[in-house]
Design goal:
The chain has 21 helices and 22 strands. By secondary structure, the protein is of the alpha/beta class.
Length: 655
């Protein structure tokens, strides 16, 4: 049991905003007072039990004094055996009541044994003794519960908090029970006024005094009836479909919506009001939670030198976080974004003070910088996340896309093989499948480079991991939508039917790490299971609902048309590729047809041409390689496309 004071004067940690008074004078004598109380209870209940059973009070005298003395000694000894005298009454619970029942049962058995051995000294009727035990246990339990109720009521009214908001709790299960109990015990700023649950067997019942009014669909009516101000979803296991329905229901009721943490916290009994948060758009997309620490990853990474390129980006920084959890010997963070890399390093050093972290400012296209990193730190695991990824931007900066995504990948991957790295993993994208834009074409070439290098450096395992969009990455659609909402602007969607695959950043990164453990990744491309594609329009509508926008939501959406290089729908697998399952449920391996022509020799030639300023030759070769590329949204001939893109190339070179 905890060893704090039982006084009604409160410590600051018991609840925020409470007035703290000095401890009561009787605190040092608490145990003595509790023992005296137990003894007094025993003295009082025996005459009452005798009166109920025999119809009269016991005759005062030496015999009664002996019986009362025996009962007091037995009850106090049993309370010591079961540690009842030192229990913290304000924390009393089921375990304490069970210990009390054990103490009462043992005491009653001992008293009966004494009366049976010495009936002349202790003539206690068996029925009286049995009732005395029940009354004694009930009286002590009533004292405990009364003290706890009084303590919590005093604590609640002493709290200096804002007026409580009236809330409807959706879900009358274990999570709802824990949440409402927390609200009623502590001054949280919430006042539960109703439960809603689709289980009709609970309708009309009361949980902690709060009535279950009906089904979730009744929320609009119940909200008016109980004058609710907010709704809280206490269903941690709710599916994305259920959450979307709940959001729509709350929209009709006009209530602000919050949600509880995941099912893991509920199973652990760790449900706190301060864990409540607004529903996020990520909750509505249906990605499963991940386990950050995995034994097989620890075995693969512990003590190794690990290089992560693009370590300041969305994927690269999360790779760094998850790799750091598995105790690598050295973690090399390579990026050209100085400020972003500084904050990633700061975060990792704070979380892992004993980890050897090496931040390196450099460009993957810089041959000397890449060579220096491999020579000095000898990375055994290389995760290549550095890439230019913004489709419209790369359409007008084709030269930089080729330099970074193609030649940069070749630089790092080739260095990994020459310096004896054991594994090289390329982070790829679904835009590499039948590319319709410069970014996708360059990432497709990066995949081909990695697969081809497997034949050149057989001691190194090369592989690529392909997946779609990640939620919340820099420049992705959700941060753009949120910024537009903050500025009061309409949400811009390219086309009503546009779809994209989505995955959370932590989930994508963990699957990349798990894919890196698969033996079949050698010389292959792994594809992550992205689930079902999501309409961007639906994403915008749900975000508007979560932001509290009411009425015709279409009025807040503007359709801009597909931008240069954009597809209506993305693909994860090309028609000439075949996917097969692996032991990792959400990772499939792609069988890619072998290519007779070498891309590496072309890349070396492109590097020379770019260095000499012959950008148009590189762009023409790129367009010849990918007939499906579009410039400005139009399919045209190679020469026309080169002429169309030439101004952008020239500007890029001039800059």
């Amino acid at each position: 049991m905890p060893h704090q004071s039982d006084a009604l004067s409160l410590d600051p940690a018991s609840a925020p905003g409470l007035t703290v008074s000095r401890p009561a004078f009787w605190i040092p004598f608490r145990n003595a007072l509790v023992v005296a109380g137990y003894g007094l209870a025993s003295v009082c209940v025996y005459p009452l039990a005798y009166l109920v059973v025999e119809g009269r009070l016991p005759v005062p005298g030496q015999e009664l004094a002996g019986i009362l003395g025996l009962l007091v000694v037995i009850r106090l000894c049993c309370s010591q055996i079961f540690v009842l005298s030192t229990s913290q009454w304000r924390f009393v619970g089921v375990a304490d009541v069970l210990r009390l029942a054990g103490a009462v049962a043992l005491g009653t058995a001992v008293a009966y044994l004494c009366s049976w051995i010495a009936p002349m000294l202790f003539p206690i009727p068996a029925r009286v003794l049995f009732l005395e035990g029940i009354l004694y246990g009930g009286l002590v339990a009533a004292a405990w519960i009364g003290y706890r109720a009084l303590f919590e009521r005093v604590r609640f009214y002493r709290a200096r908090v804002a007026p409580s908001r009236r809330v409807v709790v959706i879900g009358a299960g274990e999570a709802g029970n824990l949440l409402v109990r927390e609200m009623l015990r502590f001054p949280t700023g919430y006042r539960p006024v109703a439960f809603l649950d689709d289980d009709i067997s609970k309708h009309g019942a009361r949980i902690h005094g709060v009535r279950v009014y009906g089904r979730v669909a009744d929320l609009p009516r119940v909200a008016v009836e109980v004058k609710a101000e907010e709704a809280i979803i206490a269903i941690p296991s709710a599916s994305p479909e259920q959450l979307r329905e709940l959001v729509a229901t709350c929209e009709r009721s006009g209530l602000k919506l919050k949600v509880l943490p995941g099912i893991v916290e509920v199973l652990a009994g760790d449900v706190r009001v301060n864990q409540l948060r607004d529903v996020r758009i990520e909750d509505l997309l249906g990605r499963d939670p991940i386990l950050l620490e995995l034994p097989e990853l620890a075995a693969d990474l512990r003590g190794r030198s690990v290089l992560i390129t693009g370590a300041a980006g969305s994927i690269g920084s999360e790779l760094a976080r998850q790799v750091a959890l598995h105790q690598p010997g050295t973690l090399v963070l390579f990026d050209q974004a100085e400020t972003a890399l500084f904050f990633v390093e700061l975060e990792l050093r704070d979380a892992h003070p004993d980890l050897h972290i090496v931040p390196v400012i450099g460009d993957i296209v810089d041959h000397a910088a890449v060579e220096r990193v491999f020579e000095e730190y000898r990375p055994e695991r290389v995760f290549h996340a550095a890439a230019y990824k913004h489709v419209p931007l790369m359409e007008v900066n084709a030269r930089e896309a080729v330099l970074n995504n193609v030649i940069g990948t070749w630089r790092v991957a080739d260095a990994a093989g020459r310096h004896g790295a054991e594994k090289f993993v390329l982070v790829s994208t679904d835009k590499a499948v039948r590319p319709a834009n410069v970014m996708g074409a360059t990432k497709c070439l990066a995949e081909r480079i990695v697969l081809e290098l497997q034949h050149r450096y057989r001691e190194t395992t090369y592989g690529a991991v392909r997946f779609g969009n990640v939620l919340g990455s820099n420049g992705s659609v959700i941060p753009v939508f949120r910024k537009q909402l903050e500025e009061g602007k309409p949400l811009t969607v390219t086309h009503p039917e546009t779809t994209r695959y989505f995955m959370t950043i932590p989930e994508a990164v963990q699957l990349i790490l798990q894919a890196s453990l698969l033996p079949e990744l050698r010389g292959q491309i792994a594809m992550l299971d992205m689930g079902e594609p999501v309409k961007i329009r639906d994403l915008a509508v749900n975000l508007l609902r979560l932001a509290g926008v009411r009425g015709d939501l279409e009025r807040h959406i503007t359709y801009t048309g597909l931008r240069p290089g954009e597809k209506l729908h993305e693909e994860l697998i090309a028609p000439d590729e075949c996917a097969r399952p692996t032991k990792v449920a959400k990772v499939r391996m792609l069988e890619t047809p072998a290519r007779s022509e070498s891309i590496i020799f072309e890349v070396a030639e492109w590097e020379r041409e770019l260095a000499e300023g012959q950008d148009e030759l590189v762009l023409e070769a790129l367009l010849e390689e990918f007939p499906t590329l579009r410039i400005g949204g139009e399919k045209v001939s190679s020469r026309e496309r080169v002429q169309h893109a030439a101004p952008a190339v020239a500007i890029s070179r001039a800059v």
